[in-house]
């Protein structure tokens, strides 16, 4: 039997990262936050002075990424980038590089390498549709743009970053539009994904729902 994978895909700020991390902790599984890889790719490309529009060049540095994860710390070539890659601008840069098929290809093997026993919870945009098509459970997590913007706004205020709800909602919608309209692995639910709208669900309830689905599959 193949190594179990649960895929949690969805748009920006849908809460998929939080949900996936909690599921992984609950099940004792490994955890892949694939967005981090695209963020690191964009970071490395900028550091190398590359244009983010140059797919072949960005793919070149992406293939050579030397990433390591230690608990919540993300190291690139030994440098701690955990905070830097969480910014909205890093997210937007990631969205740009992720539209290049060569860059997506460059990250394929690295993503597959996270699939280890006893199992994996992977979150992103195309975990179920492209990276782990044989996953036993695929969840597509959504929430209204208003709810997503509100949550992101709260997080940023808590971090002491000054911004408005309107500008956050605009950024979210711009990123959704780019992620949905690109040719390479656009953001869309896999045919066999289960949809979960968490606009009015607590994190706890969302985790419970996915665990019920997981038990049904096993
Ligand atoms: O999830 P996160 O906000 O960290 O992702 C940043 C960007 O990386 C997304 O807007 C998307 O363009 C890209 N991404 C992707 N495929 C994934 C994960 C992220 O294209 N599996």
Protein traits:
218 residues, alpha/beta, five-stranded parallel β-sheet, three-stranded antiparallel β-sheet, 10 helices, globular, binds cytidine-5'-monophosphate
Short description:
The chain contains 10 helices and 8 strands.
Describe the protein's architecture and organization:
The longest helix has 17 residues, at 165-181. β3 and β4 (73-76) form a beta hairpin. 49% of the residues lie in helices and 16% in strands. It contains 10 helices and 8 strands. By secondary structure, the chain is α/β, with parallel strands linked by helices. It has helices spanning 16-27, 34-47, 55-63, 88-97, 101-106, 108-112, 127-131, 145-158, 165-181, 203-217; strands spanning 5-9, 30-33, 67-70, 73-76, 79-80, 120-124, 137-142, 194-197. A 5-stranded parallel sheet has the order 2-6-1-7-8. The site of cytidine-5'-monophosphate has 14 residues, from α2, α4 and α9.
Averaging pLDDT over every residue, what do you get? 94
Q: What fraction of residues sit in β-strands? A: 15-25%
Low-confidence stretches: none
The share of residues in helices is 40-55%
Assembly classification: single chain
In total, how many beta strands?
8
What class, by secondary structure content? alpha/beta
Integer-rounded radius of gyration:
17 Å
What's the overall geometry?
globular
Order of helices and strands: EHEHHEEEHHHEHEHHEH
How many separate helices?
10
Strand order of the largest sheet: 2-6-1-7-8
Q: Name the bound molecules.
A: cytidine-5'-monophosphate
Cα(first) to Cα(last) distance is 12 Å
**What about the largest sheet?**
5 strands, parallel
